[in-house]
Amino acid sequence: MDSDDNLDYYDSDYENQYSDDSDDTANLYDDEEDDSAVNPDDNSKSVKTFTVLQEDDINKRQEDQISHASLILSIPEVSASKLLYYYKWNVSQLHDEWFADEEKVRTAVGLPSDAVSISGTDELITCGICFDPFPIEEFHQMVCGHWYCKLCWKVYITTSITDGPGCLLLRCPEPSCKVAVCRDMVEELVAEEEWGKYRRYYLRSYVEESKKIKWCPMPGCENAIELELGNDLFDVACLCSGTFCWNCGQDAHRPVHCDTVAKWVSKNSSEAENTNWILAHSKPCPKCKRSIEKNHGCMHMTCTPPCNFQFCWLCQGDWREHNEKTGGFYSCNKYEVAKSKGLLDEVEKVREMAENSLNRYTHYYERWVANHKSRDKAIADLNALETGILQNLRDKTLESEGQLKFIKEAWEQIIECRRVLKWTYAYGYYIPEDEQVKKQLFEYIQGEAEAQLEKLHNQAEKELNNFLEKDEADFGVFRQKLVGLTAVSHSYFTKLVAFFETQKW
Amino acid sequence: MVDFSRVQKELQECNKDVKISGISVKPKADSLSHLIGTIPGPVDSPYEGGTFLIDIVLLDGYPFEPPKMKFLTKVWHPNISSQSGAICLDILKDQWSPALTLKTALVSIQALLSAPEPDDPQDAVVAQQYLRDYQTFVGTARYWTEAFAKTSSHGMDEKVQRLVEMGFPEALTRSTLEVVGGDETLALEKLCSN
């Protein structure tokens, strides 16, 4: 096959692209241990291109910047907090403009340098909102000298907080007056609940105004991810164990481009009705026709006794044909329109074309979904391993925790590989039909990587169960095989990823 | 809850200088949360000589929420809907402040009559006419002022009510009155001949 020549080319290139090096940036990421749940070790050593920020981290950064600005500009912290918000946390722009023309900045933000002098009076003053007269103690005094009673101030600020984050820009109620309502005043006047909301809006502004920080899109997760500057690797992993593309917010999809992913996702939603049946969790056994629900991660299916038929979940072909030993290489990643030509009449041809187009899409979609589900299952399996099975195994083998680490590593490799494989199917769908050579090369590399992954997944899943159930199995052999398969899978997938990242089509 | 004590004070204050400003606010019925404002058409505008009625509804949050205002009198203006009377004015929306009052809002509406903002239209048809054919716009606006905002056309609600009580449907009564320029006798004749 002509693609063999090309493979050497990837070998020389992929290490820079995907795996390790660049230790200098590795420590950018604080919580290495928590993070390792979804990343194989080899990958977590790779370039760390992002930082996870928890609520406390964001809060601390804000407070640090506030006290720093307060010191540099010689202003109270409440004023610094207003200025930083107004300047969208762009410290250098704030400094530039402040030192160029302090008065101009003060006027724009609403922080006048001189307060209107207010002398004590025994006379009643009329509130500018409720128009009721009160003694001076009932008023909250602002530097601008506009008179509103404490109750009206409270309702004014509370109403604004209820309306949304616009409360952070609140100013004096007098329309011609631009003096800002600062946070000390908000804290003093409003109820606990509203003050909490106000603080929350303020905290969120730090992420939302930033060009390099985004919220983790996982449901219920309140962490944010900061991307390092000058970085174009967008796959990030949050502490909540969610992985996503920082750029487009979809599931992590490296090495496939955001554009392809967007096309694919919209295609899936528009084809949803046609492909609903694919989503059904069961398929009939190709031999005995009993319904089978796929609840194991790998594609190697074995029907329950007495049938015991072994088949491939994807193509429903005999599993024996998926074995190198029997000469039939694992090949169900290829979509082929195997049709004899010349025998069909015109009507038949039109029907065929429509069917083929749907079949082609279905082929890729089915494999995309299968790998997606397989990955979810693998994550659940890894979780089960860590919460129970590993302990059983320790009791049985008397090995230490460190000695059994290879099982966890194997599962982490499986999870990562399933993710990459899933997205390669979205990519495969969009390879133009006339790019046959590239298509073949892509499918060859994809097929090899997939075959290795199936072996690894099978070993981790079935052989481990065998070992736990039967006493006679040799743990040393199991370990050797699993470690070997993990390494080989890593190498194949590295090649696959490198293939994408060196191709410009 | 609407701050009725403030509304009461506002009404007193506003109606004190009604002779100078021409702007007044009165309760529509017994409740202080539904009011009717009156503004004279500004001098040197196509609305000069007209008297415009504004429907004012106060929501529970008033004065911390803006009052809801719309024209009851039909008016031809880029920022006011010729159909519904809805007004496009920032201080009635996000720029409202509790330090503003019904009077200041009505003064702003009066100023809007003098200085339309066709780039931020409420009524696209009127705004287009204003920009492309200003003379025709002025003519129509003046005609509408004559037809709907002059004293003769006032008391429209009472006229409608009287005709409705005679047994005519309200929508038909209203449109017939508009066609005859508010003349109750002519409207009755027309309604009867239908």
TrEMBL record, chain A:
Q: What is its EC number?
A: 2.3.2.31
Q: Which reaction equations make up its catalytic activity?
A: [E2 ubiquitin-conjugating enzyme]-S-ubiquitinyl-L-cysteine + [acceptor protein]-L-lysine = [E2 ubiquitin-conjugating enzyme]-L-cysteine + [acceptor protein]-N(6)-ubiquitinyl-L-lysine
Domain RING-type as annotated: residue spans: 123-336
Q: Which CDD domains match?
A: BRcat_RBR_ANKIB1, Rcat_RBR_ARI7-like
GO CC entries: cytoplasm; ubiquitin ligase complex
Region of interest (Disordered), residue spans: 1-45
| GO BP terms, alphabetized | protein ubiquitination; ubiquitin-dependent protein catabolic process
Q: Where is the composition biased (Acidic residues)?
A: 1-36
Q: In which pathway does it act?
A: Protein modification; protein ubiquitination
- A Gene Ontology molecular-function term? zinc ion binding
Keywords recorded for this protein, A-Z: Metal-binding, Repeat, Transferase, Ubl conjugation pathway, Zinc, Zinc-finger
List, separated by semicolons, the cofactors it needs: Zn(2+)
Family to which the UniProt record says this protein belongs = Belongs to the RBR family. Ariadne subfamily.
Quote the function comment for this protein. Answer: Might act as an E3 ubiquitin-protein ligase, or as part of E3 complex, which accepts ubiquitin from specific E2 ubiquitin-conjugating enzymes and then transfers it to substrates.
This chain belongs to which protein, by name?
A: RBR-type E3 ubiquitin transferase
**Organism from which the protein derives:** Spinacia oleracea (Spinach)
Q: Which gene encodes it?
A: LOC110783221
From TrEMBL, chain B:
- One example GO MF annotation: ubiquitin conjugating enzyme activity
Example of a GO cellular component annotation carried by this entry:
nucleus
Query: What residues form the catalytic site here?
Result: 88
Q: Which Gene3D superfamilies match?
A: DNA helicase RuvA subunit, C-terminal domain, Ubiquitin Conjugating Enzyme
Q: Which InterPro entries match?
A: UBA, UBA-like_sf, UBC, UBQ-conjugating_AS, UBQ-conjugating_enzyme/RWD
What does UniProt give as the signal peptide span?
none
**Keywords for the protein's UniProt record, in alphabetical order:** ATP-binding, Nucleotide-binding, Transferase, Ubl conjugation pathway
* Segments forming domain UBA: 155-194
The Gene Ontology biological process annotation of the record reads: protein polyubiquitination
The family note in this entry says: Belongs to the ubiquitin-conjugating enzyme family.
Q: What is this protein called?
A: E2 ubiquitin-conjugating enzyme
What organism is recorded for this protein?
Answer: Spinacia oleracea (Spinach)
Q: What is the lineage of its organism?
A: Eukaryota, Viridiplantae, Streptophyta, Embryophyta, Tracheophyta
> What would be the name of the gene that encodes this protein?
LOC110786022
